[in-house]
Amino acid sequence: MLQTEFEFTLPRGYVDARGNLHRHGTMRLATALDEIEPLQDARVRANEAYLSILLLSRVITRLGDLGQSQISPALLEGLFAADMAYLQNLYIQVNDCGTSLVETQCPHCGTRFALDIAGGSDNA
Length: 124
Fold this sequence. Notes:
Blueprint: E1 5-15, E2 21-28, H1 32-36, H2 42-46, H3 50-59, E3 60-63, E4 66-67, H4 73-77, H5 81-95, E5 101-105, E6 112-116
Antiparallel strand pairs: 1-2, 2-3, 3-4, 5-6
């Protein structure tokens, strides 16, 4: 069975207007429309880097207590740079590479390691 949604934990997290921290979320696989439609947006034509913001706002289905309808480009603009970089890497991993392995870092000791975000276990 094809896995279409992937859970993630942001390195820092999004802090909402009330001061609540949102770190855990889910991202779905992108569709062709997800990648094509933002190319028509004036913000992307003015600054190609904005494409990442629009793409991620379409494929992130949950961030903490926030549902997909609340995840907007404006919300993603407020992410810390480390979180944005993490989400961009995750997007590439699950959509372009066909693998669910993501490089991550332990928030306590700083050790970098590969994490299988598909959640399956390979006990061969």
